[in-house]
Specification:
Number of domains: 1
Number of helices: 10
CATH class: Alpha Beta
Largest sheet: 8 strands, mixed
Low-confidence stretches: none
CATH topology: Rossmann fold
Helix content: 25-40%
Number of strands: 10
Strand order of the largest sheet: 1-2-4-3-5-6-9-10
Radius of gyration: 18 Å
Distance between the termini: 24 Å
CATH architecture: 3-Layer(aba) Sandwich
Strand content: 15-25%
Order of helices and strands: EEEHEHEHEHHEHEHEHEHH
Shape: globular
Structural class: alpha/beta
């Protein structure tokens, strides 16, 4: 059963889906908050994982970050890591107040890029007792640059971001580019990623396929690595050598302040978004991890 709900980050409403396998709100369950990759909405990979976890006895929350999907907030379609981190903290704090959630049993499962945001939110004190990262994307300026043509490609995108900032400051208009378009170097994702092109997969009706062009200034300079040393909650990493940045994953796992486990799987990055083998394996591993660490 999926029902609509709302979180608030300050005055900004964040649209939520609550996934639960029982109608009785007096039954407390452990909770899991699930988020997906950058520039996405809850109806993509997050709701898929949430439905699987709800079938196993968790109350699961998915939500649209501020500026995306059905949530409020401006600017729209802007990948602002600091804002997303604050949204995660607000979500965890709200979930921890609900009487149908077992006290102290709030977990987080992040797919792809939201993993690095969740990691920093936990370091910032979000009330999350256990963390699972699925095909987690953790980058810094040096390791993200090769995805965008190295130093020259990064400089080009930062120059475009500066132009977009100037336009926004002068007119109030947010200049947008496609979030995904194969071969378009202005797009957020310009290499072939069938997940985002196929309606039966990631090209869902609620996804606008837009990115505020000034997002480059934040995405290309985000530090997704250093927060690991401040995270002491038990953490599971499900990853593949053929997924993104496996060496960064090893670095994050090895520098955590608390216990961690890495499960190495097979598959490419986008396989973990919706392919049965990778999703089923990841949900099994996350379920075992949460049952052990939320007890």
């Amino acid at each position: 059963m999926t029902t609509p709900f709302q979180f608030f980050h300050g005055d900004t409403p964040l649209a939520v889906h609550v996934h639960r396998d029982v109608d009785n709100l007096t039954e407390r369950q452990p909770a899991v908050i699930v988020t997906g990759s950058w520039l996405t909405v809850k109806e993509q990979m997050a709701d898929l994982y949430a439905a699987r976890l709800a079938d196993r006895g968790y109350t699961v929350f998915t939500f649209d970050f501020a500026g995306f999907g059905a949530s409020g907030g401006t600017p729209r379609h802007a990948e602002l890591p600091a804002r997303k981190i604050e949204d995660i903290i607000a979500a965890a704090r709200t979930v921890s107040t609900l009487s149908y959630v077992r006290p102290g049993a709030v977990a987080y499962l992040a797919v792809c890029a939201s993993a690095q945001y969740a990691l920093r939110a936990i370091a910032r004190g979000a009330p999350i007792a256990s963390f699972a990262s699925v095909a987690g994307w953790y980058h810094d300026a040096e390791s993200v640059a090769p995805f965008y043509g190295g130093e020259q490609g990064v400089a080009m995108r930062l120059a475009r971001a500066a132009e977009a900032f100037e336009h926004f400051q002068r007119t109030g208009e947010v200049r947008t580019v496609p979030a995904y378009e194969n071969g378009n170097d202005r797009a957020g994702m310009s290499f072939e990623l069938p997940y985002y092109a196929e309606p039966g997969r990631g090209a869902v009706p609620t996804w606008a396929n837009e990115m505020a062009e000034f997002s480059w200034a934040y995405w290309l300079t985000f530090d997704g690595l250093s927060a690991a040393a401040e995270v002491s909650v038990p953490t599971l990493f499900v990853h593949s050598e053929d997924a993104v940045l496996p060496d960064n994953l090893r670095r994050v796992a090895s520098t955590l302040a608390g216990p961690s486990e890495v499960v190495w799987a097979e598959g490419t990055q986008i396989d973990f978004y919706d392919q049965e083998q990778q999703v089923a394996m990841s949900v099994d591993a996350a379920d075992q991890h949460f049952r052990r660490t939320l007890s």
